[in-house]
Amino acid sequence: FSRRSRSLVSGTHITARAPQLREFATRRMSGAAGWMTAAFVVALALAVTVLATSGDGESGTALALRVTARWCFLLFWPAYAGGALAKFWGPRFAVLAHHGREFGLAFAAALSVHIGLVLWLLDVAAKQRTLMLFFWVGVACTIMLAAFSLPRLRDWLGLRLWRALSEAAMQYIA
Predict the structure, then answer these.
(1) Helix (H) and strand (E) counts for the chain?
(2) Model pTM score
């Protein structure tokens, strides 16, 4: 049951559930998916802006890589150090610890733009191709952390193995 009233401006019916729908949409976008979407869009906008102003050649792509790397660092650092900051400095930094998963998933989303730029640079700078093993292991660690942030997969691993894997992966990325 919802009360209906007629809008004076548009003449359409308004239900009393409209505030509930707004609250639902806001709550949905403030979760991990909202953080990931925002991080990806910002990384993509930074990359497009740099490539548009500096060119899509080797130097423009290298600059876009530096800019997106800094953006990724801003997302990774709270995921990595948020818990320690909250323990050391108290409740002032508890919000960082509370949103560690969201920061980590946002980092993974922004990293996808950075990975695309790396692949683009490998194509543009064909004469300077390297294996980049350390980078790709870090990417694999990020993907593993993102995948196992899902509760069912994390529960499948068990608490001890999850803690060991997540700690090793976070330390490697850091």
Answers:
(1) 8, 2
(2) 0.75
Q: How far, in Å, CA of 64 to CA of 46, rounded?
A: 7
Contacts of 170 (CB under 8 A, 6+ apart): 79, 80, 141, 145
CA 84 to chain centre: 20
> Residue 60 in contact with residue 117, Cβ under 8 Å?
no
DSSP string, 73-116: HHHHHHHHHHHHHHHHHGGGGHHHHHTHHHHHHHHHHHHHHHHH
Distances (CA, A) of 111 to 14, 20, 27, 69, 137: 42, 34, 25, 8, 13
pLDDT, tens digit, for every residue of 74-115?
A: 999 988 888 888 888 888 888 888 888 899 999 999 999 999
Distance from C-alpha of 86 to C-alpha of 92, rounded to nearest angstrom = 7
Instruction: Answer yes or no: is pLDDT of 72 > 90.
Output: yes
Helix (H) or strand (E) holding 14, with range, is strand 13-15
